[in-house]
Amino acid sequence: MRSPEEIIIRPYITEKSNIEGANGKYTFIVDSRATKTEIKNAVEKLFQVKVIQVNTANYKGKVKRYGVHVGPRPDWKKAVVKIDLDPKPETYYAKGNKEVAVNKKYKTSIEEFGIVQ
Q1: Could you give the CA distance from residue 11 to residue 32 in angstroms, rounded to a whole number?
Q2: 7, 45, 66, 68: most buried, per Cβ within 10 A?
Q3: 81 close to 28: Cβ distance less than 8 angstroms
Q4: Nearest CA to 26 among 38, 41, 14?
């Protein structure tokens, strides 16, 4: 089992990702072997937010030239994570058919991402 710090490498900050951040979508560069479930659990643990959806894309490294040396850049994986902007309390039925509501403390944004609103 890998730690969340090993799965989430860094945020992927572009103009498009800054615009989508206002709608609750955050983009990260993640470990290329990470699954969507691992990414979801890592983001929820690191940033204390409720993740609704995870989309991933794999990218092949480009071949670059430095003088006479030619070599590939590493392959990488991008994950777009959609968080819940309005977390509601979870309700379930406990013993004796009593309805119980649990209000978990979730954040509604990721401040560490560096989005200017």
Answers
A1: 14
A2: 7
A3: yes
A4: 14
Predicted TM-score (pTM) of the model is 0.81
Residue 58 placed within a domain: yes
Residue 78 lies in a domain: yes
Residue-level pLDDT at 17: 92
Residue 32 is part of which domain span?
A: 4-106
How many separate domains does the chain show?
1
- At 40, the amino acid letter reads K
Among 106, 108, 116, residue whose Cα is nearest residue 48 = 106
* Euclidean distance between CA atoms 55 and 8, whole angstroms: 14
The string of DSSP codes covering 36-65 is HHHHHHHHHHHH-B-EEEEEEEEEPPPEEE
More confident residue, 53 or 111: 53
Q: Is residue 111 part of a domain?
A: no
- CATH number of residue 63's parent domain: 3.30.70.330
